[in-house]
Each structure stands twice: as structure tokens, then as C-alpha cells.
Design a protein that fits this description.
75 residues; mainly alpha; two-stranded antiparallel sheet; Lipoprotein; signal
């Protein structure tokens, strides 16, 4: 009976520690903001790809719509 009374508080502390927020800067958020700014500067919008790799450059693409062409304008 004694191990059960010790194990319950330990399990509770481990569960609470797993849910604790992390502190410090988020490198993912910083990189995502940098990618978004770069995309907007090119006239696009950053959209998710549906992947979750943990790397923003793999998880998002810059979608540029309208006006983007490689064909010369002869008119």
C-alpha cells in the first residue's frame, strides 16, 4: 500500500510538468514571421501545405496570384 501513496503524487507531478509552458523565444515563430514577410514583399501570401515537419519552410508555401508571368508584354 505504501508504494501506491508515493506513486500517485509523483505521477501527478510528472503530468503537470508535461503540460507546463516552455519559456524563451520560439524559433519556429521567428522563422515563420521571416518567411511571411519575404512572401508579402513579393506580392504573395504564405499558406500551409498540410505538412507538419517542424520546419516552417517545409510546412508553408508562398502563393502569388495575379500579375506574375514570365512572358514578355509586347503590348
Amino acid at each position: 500500500m505504501r508504494p501506491l501513496t508515493v506513486a500517485a503524487p509523483v505521477a501527478l507531478l510528472l503530468a503537470l510538468a508535461a503540460c507546463a509552458p516552455t519559456t524563451g523565444p520560439s524559433h519556429y515563430a521567428d522563422e515563420l514571421r521571416r518567411l511571411s514577410d519575404s512572401c508579402e514583399a513579393r506580392g504573395g501570401i504564405l499558406v500551409p501545405t498540410g505538412q507538419q515537419s517542424g520546419r516552417p519552410q517545409n510546412d508553408h508555401v508562398c502563393r502569388i496570384s495575379g500579375g506574375a508571368t514570365r512572358l514578355p508584354n509586347d503590348g
